[in-house]
Design brief:
377 residues, Dihydrofolate Reductase, subunit A, binds ligand AOF, five-stranded mixed beta sheet, alpha/beta, Cytidine Deaminase, domain 2, binds zinc ion
């Protein structure tokens, strides 16, 4: 089979777009509330002369770094960028102005930027300046890469991933209140990798009381810690739990119902900079999680990894608040008597109410199976 000329152009665009994605990934979890973006400039002969990725909100956009590196060689050249170039003044000036000034003659991008200040206007501005623009290159992959930003910019809600580790018989511990190691060391490293890319990690009060976790990233090089959020309706966690003694005090959030000022003093004594978030209850002992996510979105938290026990997992699934479910399955069986099931949900008797998911990925990690799922709409 011979390739048409168009196919060759498409595959070159896809090749460089893939590289843009790889560049962008360097900053996963570091750019909020901005997206991750990678860019490459080719000179007019088709030779790569500049590369860049957006590193942090407030700093240069990907295209700016790549074009600066290319310098004069950008003239008549091609820009590949994983997101539609911006055309607005934010913390930084519009990328479109620099692209036009650089003399670049063609631009390929993957996703349109749904930011209302951009939203196809970037493309329009470039076209009006007689730059050839090609959009939607590897669009699905680009969307997956920026799933956190794309959800938040459209809804102002963070992307919520529920993560659990369980046995073959869906157990999370041998008995209530007992910490039981389930998965292999390799899976623990994978969880740290995940923490390294999410803006925040959230746990319930039982997890703090039973496991006393730090929720930091310790098993990955060049890592940074996510914000740590504890959900504790009745303030049952110990104020001296490890999580409240975190080195960076202001990264810790305690979410609870209102009207507990006296009890909260103890936590503030342990951690004077702790962020207290008060949320209404939807029923006795259950906070309105949707309202919580709205508040977290307002704080520029674009992604939350919920390392949930059975109650929190049940509440999230029941209220359809999760975007993704990551399950680490260890090939072990705990048996029935006292062991605890991974998800507490009320009995479902009606077939129409069964919670259904689509498996989008699976990976063998050590001796565990990591499965990523998305709720079926
Ligand atoms: C791009 N390239 O690398 C990024 C873009 O406050 P600013 O100036 O940093 O603008 C932030 C907005 O710009 C952000 O919400 C998103 O719409 C876009 N991000 N655009 O062309 C980039 N990071
Ligand atoms: Zn820009």
């Amino acid at each position: 089979m011979s390739l048409e000329l168009d196919d060759i152009y498409i595959s070159q665009a896809e090749y460089y777009m893939q590289e843009c994605f790889e560049l962008a990934k360097n900053a996963l979890g570091r750019t909020s509330p901005n997206p991750i973006v990678g860019a490459i400039v080719l000179d007019k002969e088709g030779v790569p002369v500049g590369r860049g990725f957006h590193q942090k909100s407030g700093e240069d956009h990907a295209e700016v770094i790549a074009i600066k590196e290319a310098g004069e060689k950008a003239k008549g050249g091609t820009l590949f960028v994983s997101l539609e170039p911006c055309c607005h003044f934010g913390k930084t000036p519009p990328c479109t102005d620099l692209i036009i000034k650089s003399g670049i003659s063609q631009v390929y991008f993957s996703n349109y930027d749904p930011n209302p200040l951009v939203n196809a206007s970037g493309e329009q501005k470039l076209s009006e300046s007689n730059i050839k623009v090609f959009s939607r290159v590897l669009e699905d992959d680009g969307e997956e890469l920026n799933k956190f930003f794309l959800k938040w910019i459209k809804t102002k809600l963070p992307w919520v991933t529920l993560k659990q580790a369980q046995t073959l018989d869906a157990k999370v511990s041998l008995s209530k209140g007992k910490e039981t190691s389930i998965t292999s060391e390799e899976s623990k490293v994978e969880v740290h990798r995940l923490r390294n890319t999410y803006d925040a990690v959230l746990v319930g009060s039982n997890t703090v009381n039973v496991d006393d976790p730090e929720l930091t990233v310790r098993l990955v090089e060049n890592s940074r810690n996510p914000k740590r959020i504890v959900l504790d309706v009745n303030l049952e966690t110990s104020p001296s739990a490890k999580i409240y003694k975190s080195k960076k005090y202001d990264e810790v959030f305690l979410v609870t119902k209102s009207g507990q000022a006296e009890k909260l003093k103890e936590y503030k004594t342990q951690n004077p900079l702790i962020n207290i978030v008060e949320v209404d209850q939807i029923s006795e002992g259950k906070l309105d999680l949707k309202k919580l996510f709205i508040k977290l979105g307002e704080q520029n938290i674009l992604s939350v990894l919920v390392e949930a026990g059975p109650n929190l997992a049940g509440e999230l699934i029941e209220s359809s608040l999760i975007d993704e479910y990551i399950l680490f399955m260890a090939p072990k069986i705990f048996g029935n008597e006292k062991s605890v099931l991974s998800v507490h949900l009320p009995q479902i008797d009606n077939g129409n109410s069964i919670k259904e998911f689509r498996i989008i990925n699976h990976k063998l990690i050590g001796n565990d199976l990591m499965v990523s799922l998305r709720p079926k709409p």
